[in-house]
Amino acid sequence: MEKKLILRGLLAGAVGGLLSFVFARIFAEPQIQAAIDYEGARDAAQEALSTAAHAHEGHEVFSRTLQGNAGIGVALILFGMAMGALFAIVYSLCLGRVGRIQPRNLSLLVAGAGFVGLYLVPFVKYPANPPAVGHEDSIRDRTDLYLLMVLASVVLLVLAVVLGQRLQARFGNWTATILAGTAYLVAVGVVMALLPQFGHLAVNEASYGSHASETPLPLTDSDGNIVFPGFPADLLFDFRLNSVAAQLIMWAAIGVVFAPMADRLLSPRTAKIPADPITA
Amino acid sequence: MSSTTPSGSIPAAAATPVVVPLSRAGLLLFGTALLAMLVYYFIGVDQGAYSIFGADTHIHEFVHDGRHFLGFPCH
Ligand SMILES: [Zn+2]
After folding, report:
1. What are the backbone angles phi and psi of residue A272, rounded to the nearest 5°?
2. Transmembrane region positions (chain B) (predicted)?
3. Taking the model in full, what pTM does it have?
4. ipTM of model
């Protein structure tokens, strides 16, 4: 049974990854290219100012065409399959251990948990950034903090589900769910408040001053005149919105595609259980 | 419309039994989870903050757009 569930999880994940790739190819790639163009123009402006060199290596390992089609396609489909596998594992473990939830509904719940726990909550603290936003020197710190945020989010989500199940016996489903959900939001909020913002990392404050984020500010000459604009705010927002949308598409597809397959796989077993006339 | 009780007023479906006991499936689930996290690592992190294959950047460059778009720190 577990093999069948994992295979179906991989399939659902591949579908989710493929759909998010189609979305990314249409809506995100133009924005990614615009961000890279901004970066190139900014580097040129910086060089013209001949301030302390922050030169960018110009060599390309893969062409933009390859990165923007095959590269992002492979990345999103493989990522979808990996998430589908994790999804199927959690789903398998939940079966029979989380109370009276129908196989299809459980599929949607686990997919929703994956979206919120693995992506959305970490995103709220450390949102996705397009190329040109982010300092190379801080990549280690930023990666560590992001992964820590993902880990904290997932662990707290699991704890919240366990808490909800404990509370259920006393308060019932509705109240227990609200209490556990609130506890999750509060706990996750505390973690967010404790972790530093990327702009306030020591390596950034040393060379850029005190700013909340790494989003490029306007470039100024020695007299303080703006010679190149800061990163376009609309572009940043659109990229982030599309990032959320792509993950939403992926996780929704995983939940929706997996649900009927799991239902077919499990329904003979659920039907065998007597004393409950309501099956559909 | 009284307050919610543990049993609830909505008819519940039959409970799904435990179909994946850990004693039998634990190893497979663990191995699969490990593989999935390895894929997560290679798409999101490798050859950026950390690198398994030294200074090579082929994986990073190939999945580059996806890495940004999936929300991982990059650049
Ligand atoms: Zn990058």
Report:
1. -70, -25
2. 25-43
3. 0.89
4. 0.90
What is the amino acid identity at position A204?
Answer: N
Distance CA A189, CA A126 (A): 13
Alpha helices in chain B (DSSP H): 22-44, 58-62, 64-69
**Is the pLDDT assigned to residue A145 strictly greater than 50?**
yes
Inside any domain, residue B54? yes
- Give which of B60, B49, B67 is closest to A130, Cα–Cα: B67
Q: Within an 8 Å CB–CB cutoff, is residue B59 touching chain A?
A: no
CA nearest neighbour of A266 among A105, A95, A109, A138: A95
In the reported structure, the alpha carbon of residue A38 is separated from the centroid of ligand 1 by a whole-number distance in angstroms of 13
SS3 B70: coil
Q: Does B63 touch chain A (CB under 8 A)?
A: yes
pLDDT in tens, A50-90: 755 555 555 678 999 999 999 999 999 999 999 999 999 99
Nearest to A143 among B4, B14, B45 (CB): B45
The rounded distance, in Å, linking the Cα atoms of A209 and A139 is 17
B56 in any annotated domain = yes
Of A180-184, A205-209, B66-70, the one with minimum mean pLDDT is: A205-209
Task: Supply the range of the domain harboring residue B47.
Answer: 35-75
Q: How far is B74 from chain A (nearest CA, A)?
A: 7
pLDDT of residue A60: 78
- Please name the helix (run of DSSP H) or strand (run of DSSP E) that holds residue A205, with its range, or none: helix A202-208
**B24 inside domain:** no
Distance A34 CA to ligand 1 centre (A): 13
| Beta bridge partners of residue A219, listed in sequence order | A228
B7 is a domain residue: no
**CA A257 – CA A15 distance, rounded (Å):** 8
SS3 A53: coil
Give the Å distances, CA to CA, from A10 to A4, A75, A266, A267, B40.
10, 15, 18, 21, 14
* Nearest residue in chain B measured CA to CA from A239: B69
DSSP state of A198: G
* Mean pLDDT, chain B, integer: 82
